[in-house]
Specification:
The complex is a heterotrimer of chains A (292), B (805) and C (160). Chain A is an alpha+beta fold. Chain A contains 12 helices and 14 strands. In chain A, the strands form 4 sheets. A 5-stranded antiparallel beta sheet of chain A has the order 4-5-10-6-7. Chain A is globular. Chain B has 805 residues and is an alpha+beta fold. Chain B has 21 helices and 29 strands. A 5-stranded mixed beta sheet of chain C has the order 2-1-5-3-4, sandwiched between helices. In chain C, helix 2 crosses helix 5, helix 3 crosses helix 4 and helix 4 crosses helix 5. Chain C is globular, with a radius of gyration of 16 Å. Chains A and C meet through helix 2 and helix 6 of A and strand 4 of C.
Chain lengths: 292, 805, 160
Amino acid sequence: MKPASFSYVRPTTVEEALSALAQQGGEAKVLAGGQSLIAMMNLRLLKPSRLVDINRVAALDYIRHDNGTLAIGALTRLSAAERSPLVAQHCPLMTEAIQHIAHRPIRNRGTVGGNLAHADPTSELPAVAVATDATFVARSAKGQRTILAADFFVGHLTTALQPDELLTEVRVPPSRLAGQGWSFMEVSPRKGDYALVGVAATLQVKDGACQAARLVYCGVAGRAQRVPEAEQALVGRAADEGAFRAAAGIASQRVHPDSDFHATAAYRRDLVNALTRRALAQALARCGERSA
Amino acid sequence: MTSQPTGYRWIGQSMKRVEDPRLLTGRGQYVDDIGLPNMTHAAVLRSPHAHARIRSIDTSKAKAVPGVVLVMTGAEAAQQTGPLPCFASPPVAQYCIAVDRVRHVGEAVAAVVAESRYIAEDAADLIEVEYAPLPVVIDPEEATRSTGDAVLHPERGPSNVALQRTLTFGPVDEDFARADVVVRRKLRWPRSGAQPMETVGALASYDDATGKFSIHANTSMYNYVGWLMAMSLKVPAHKLNIIPAIAGGSFGSKLFTHKVPILAATLARACGRPVKYLEDRIDNIMSCDNHGSDRIYDLELALKKDGTMLSLRMKVIDDYGAYLQFGVGHHGNALAQLTGPYRIKSAQVSLTAVLTNKGQQGAYRGFGSEVNNFVVERMADAAAEAVAMDPVDIRRKNFIQPDQFPYKIPTGNLYDSGNYEAVLDKALEMADYHGWRRKQHEARQAGRYVGIGLVSCQERSVFSATEFWFWNHEPGFALTSSPDSVDVKIDPTGKAFVRLHAPFWGNSPETVATQILAEQLTMDPADITVTYSDTDSGLPGTGPGGSRYTVMIAGAIAGAAKELREKMFKVAAHLLEASESDLELRDGRVGVRGTDRGMSIGDIALQAHYFKLSLPPDVRSGLDARYTYDHPYTTLPNADRTDMGVFYPIMGHMCHIPIIEVDIETGQITFLKYVAVHDAGTVVNPMTLAGHIRGGTVQGIGSALYEHYYYDPSGQLLTANFADYLIPTLMEAPENIEVGHVVTPSPYTEYGIKGGGEGGRMGAPAALASAVEDALKPLGIKIDSLPIRPVLLREMIREAQQRRP
Amino acid sequence: MEREEVTVTVNGVRHERMVEPRRLLCDFIREDLGLSGTHVGCEHGVCGMCTVLVDGRTARSCLMFAVQVDGASITTVEGLGTPSKMHPLQEAFREKHGLQCGFCTPAMLVTALELLDHDPNPSRDDIREAVSSNLCRCTGYQTIVDSIEYAATLMRGGAR
């Protein structure tokens, strides 16, 4: 399958990119990694009339750590983020999650910003963003705003971005939880396929008792879903198999996944149950492995 | 005899492949790599409906797109091109573009020819088609009851049943009457397919000065039935030349891919320019005409309480999809090893072949016999459970014994040789079977679900033509030839030129041909070159498929080499003034035994080519031979079909032992070990045979666990791309498939070779089902259908857990 | 139909062409540059047949437009070796039977090249991870891993 025609512009600065987006209204699409976009264009599921290729906007390709905040430029390649010592140190949950994204050639081109802006409900990074209270910087020709992850993901392939806005940066705040453990796990039909269900989990334990936890799932709704009831069920309890089982049970009942060819709703709930327990166990094992 | 015959220089060597240098350096000429001046590109518009009448097609907007050369509808194509070839009798009419009715999602509705594929697709987007939907039938059992507009081919009769027949071999009723136990199971084998990495393509041109087509295509059987394409194109057979391109994988699916070349040729003739049509992946998944068997079985196995298997009754419904290009040949094939490796004395098969609104079946590695292996081995396991016998012991008890070969099975086919216990024992040893049973026990105590699968399966090789028609009530064209040919010439410098008349599929034909000729003529492989003929200069060539090609080419080369040796000896005897009986061929030299007098093959060739007056008077110039080798052992079925004759007697065998663990919370399966022991008779190249065993095993794992052409009730194919049709990656394959060999040479073939090309796929699906069922024995779960997807397995586990006290 | 200029180095050779923006990199390589060793299998990024190296890193050429490689350096299978002078990777694949039909082989070779360029001493698991990004329907993958493992020893100067 070959894509339909489009006009093509390749800005080299953020301002040029924003200007191009402002001109075209809703008809322009941003070409970053292209690993989702071009596949859909080849299948003619999408026929944008204009592509704004931002791959030369070098100013968007960076990973920095300032004042405790991990700042990742939107154009950062997934494989660069995967290999980044800064990400490994300050957001190991993201490092682990990226390893589940497709395969290396896809990660060599795909970008952090592109993956997040695409907002596939089975995508790993949105779950990580919600689990870490990340914020997103969106810029347009008219100005700039910051959007909390929980507000950024609206639904199936839909974000809070306006058609003339470009996601320019993802910020992961410093973890307020000293000695926090983490785990990202997913089940997919084959290794590298879209997740059926994935969980981004963090857990803080002090003197053997759970202090705080995050449980955010992909694949169970139109967007990444946090289950605070399951998180709350852990707080104050001894960090053990029984607590994890209880939290997993609550989580599996609080999600309302769809059934499709690849997985039934009941199966997705079973996966939420199993993955929650396993991820919490792994997070517990990792508590204290790194400092906040 | 269970060892490789020794004393060969090249047979049995893992010689590095002749094909490799060009493939490794990106110089393989697959069909899409071939170009012609002034070439155009085609794209096909496909039906979104599973069953509908085509009310109207408006191509005007498409035709107006700049760069478009031609737009053609099915009605327009049918004016110049007739129905596609069909082996079924009576045939089922299919056209390269649907004429007035579409019968499956993805069927071609119109074709566009343009300067580029991009433009052709732009234009295809602008074709407007009005459909009148018709009732859709997707369920095979429902298809047996279809009436009215749900019937796909009303011209053939008021039913979607394409063929219904019961064949009875031996005293089935009596054997069931005297049974102590009857085991019954209903099994489902859904369609998966070859899905090679290369799709089907053709580059066709038409010379209107000569009225002749020339088509580059990656199909096989061009030198067997290629002329049928000329018939479809409504030209005499000598006005079509098919030139083979190497194929990027086939696994049966490129056996006879007539539709794509005929479409390309029709378009080329209409527009007056060469047309390349290459299926893209969506074209191929939806409309490749090569989906695999799609069967529902009702089975009964009659046993004595000591585990002796007596008789097998089989009712099978096979969903052929919308057309029937190979007839019910897949069931002919299954009769070759219907009763597996067991001494079952009688059998009955009731076949109902139905047509539904799905893509058409073609050939996929096993051609229906891998399915037969699956059902026989599931029944063997069920039998073991029913009489409380170990699955290994019940197999041993029922195996055909080495001294019983050649062994005639109830259907009439013969098994040439075998030693099934030797294969089993070797597999058990390699797998450390008893050690793993102990580990399994410990694992179960720890709440882990480890399973040991074990299957003993046949790999029949070298199909005969009779399997394509002997099921038919009216046989139609009851052909009995399925030969393969070779021609070999030796040039004045002593180099050998081998020409094959069947294509390369990845199956190493050049390597195997080189090894065999080198052996036959004591030549250095480096002095041999192999090429492929087209149909203009082709000799009869059935080609690869049914694990036949190595056996057939060995026979053909042996035949040609014998003629060459005879001529060389005659010439050498004359020139050396020696007696032919004193000569021997050794190390590329014909010499007088016991002396150092002799002539190299090159010397003889030089004389033969240029020095007529020095040759014996009755010898003509040149040094070449051609040989057409027929199937070594075929006999006709009898009139009432209680005996199908001998049609697939070269019988390989295998034992697969996969050891797996099931994660009962997620339904996912991990491999702990995989042992595959194969008997393919004398092995020409152990390295390439092991490749077929491993590659075939992973394809079998695909069919067992991941792959399914899944149609929803409205006939939409939900697995229409590579994101949804799940081909195993490395991570889904066992890390180490341990391969073992046992050798029982065939008494009927050159060197005793048996076919091994279908390899691991013949046994792996059955083996996986066995392993999963064994793993989940504590939960009482039975594996009756494939693929064993985690979501389905998890559901069975959940239900079983809820049932438990 | 607007066309864009592309200047790209492929296997060390510089090329300049005008291309439609929508022209896929795989079609550009195969047809515009005549390098047909890189194959096309699915055009939605799953099978990996079209994999090439872009600036030393694997990329699916069916998921890039030719215009995107303006100024880049690409390696395809043709850049490794010739039948008479094969790269150690190619020799190793031949030795260990890492191919049957050959269709996935160019992709496997450049994928192996990326791996070995960045890690001359990969573990078998590292090799397996790399190979898992491409489909092969013929071999079952095991001999492909064996081939790359063997190539690594050849390239480190080990015995043949």
